[in-house]
Amino acid sequence: MSSSSNLKAVPAAAETAPPRRERRKEARPGELLDAALDLFVEKGFAATRSEEVAARAGVSKGTLFLYFPSKEELFKAVVRENISGRFAEWNEEFEAFEGSTPDMVRYCMRVWWERLGATRASGITKLMISEARNFPDLAAFYQQEVIQPAHELMRRILQRGVARGEFRPLDIDYAVFSISAPMIFLIMMKHSLGACVPRDYAVDPERYIASQVEILLNGMCK
């Protein structure tokens, strides 16, 4: 999102302009989380420095550490703010949904893209795939905060379909991967080959999701 020249210029301005830092000393945590999300997605976890996040938000590093005592805690807060904190809302939608389960699957995959996949926060998935092995504590956190709740919600959807006679009997523990895998592929395309050579790896998300969900439902529906 930002060029390397911007990353050099902003910290210099933040470190040499005390009046600006004074004005920004009461920066809200949300502003710091926005800056952190941008940098984590742009550079990855290992390459992002706390002082860069502070500079991007226009505050001192000391101000950042008042809210988030370490880069690890900052990353966890970014994940909770942008992804895991939304599962309560998504589960409420599941409870209130009155349509058929095939329609629920269509709705969930489409809305997942609109609310997460198409946003900056989708880059966190690529980051975790790329760096989880080097940061096992963060991998365990992501597993608990994101992957497990996501799979539990998908299980509830599939179990609903089976219980209502809309889906054939399924190995639900593994059927959840049939829903999540196409979405992970779409994110990886967006943040890897699709970002580097978009004309050669052009994927229309809406068409892709519509195609994947119908293939999936053709395999599950009675």
Automatic annotation (TrEMBL):
Residues 49-68 bind DNA. Residues 18-27 have a biased composition (Basic and acidic residues). This is TetR/AcrR family transcriptional regulator. Keywords: DNA-binding, Transcription, Transcription regulation. Residues 1-27 are annotated as: Disordered. Residues 26-86 form the HTH tetR-type domain.
